[in-house]
Amino acid sequence: MKVIRHYVGNDLRNFNYVVGCDRTGQAIVIDPFDHRAVLQIAVEMGWQIKLILNTHEHYDHIEGNPFVQQVTGAEIWAHRGIASVIPNVAKGLVANEIIELGDIRLKVFFTPGHTAAHVCFLLLPPTDKEAACFFSGDTLFNASAGNCRNGGNVDDLYHTFVSVIGPLADNTLLYPGHDYLLNNLNFALECDPSNLLAQRLKEQICHLQAGTVPVMTLGDERAYNPFLRLGEAKILEKMRPRFAGHSPRPSQVFARLGELRDNW
Per-residue pLDDT tens for 146-158? Predict the structure, then answer.
């Protein structure tokens, strides 16, 4: 199996993903925006695209669906709650379903918050010695979390972080829907200026070409992403003045962090 990450280079800095099985030559496309690029990737790799998966219904995650489908005949799958919203969805997905294509096995996670019917996909490794890959759409970003301004709910997003992202292994590779890393690191350092990992990562990427940021693990994220550090002293120290001296619940810290980030 191979995961190919394609940076679109649009204003929203989208990532598109192609997951291929070398044994069968079959492939899955996740959230295609740049249909020409994902089709070219498939040609170069010698893959046939059989499935198009959408994490949610926002246009920048489904824009390329009809073009990829027209060329390849691939089916479009998305959460059943938006199967009537995204055109030509052939199958409505449910939580914990396993998608299998050749050697590819993707587990579906229901991850509401950014939108009401968002899903993420976990690429299951063939052996215990290899890392899983988490395609997080607009739920979890490097050094941040998705916003809830366009059909989402912050309480749902918090529970997604606790119940879905929380149990995932530290070595899980994170593949988000956008490259917002540099901007998000600046916000993370605003929350915790002394975070050495965030400082070093910012120094590492600030001169990189857009879309070439390294693939990080969830273990990395848990060290510098403020939305995954709700109970840590540095984050609470930053947030406590916003709660008039009271001790806030983790869900309240999460929501207030989101407000700060959205207006930062």
Answer: 999 988 999 999 9
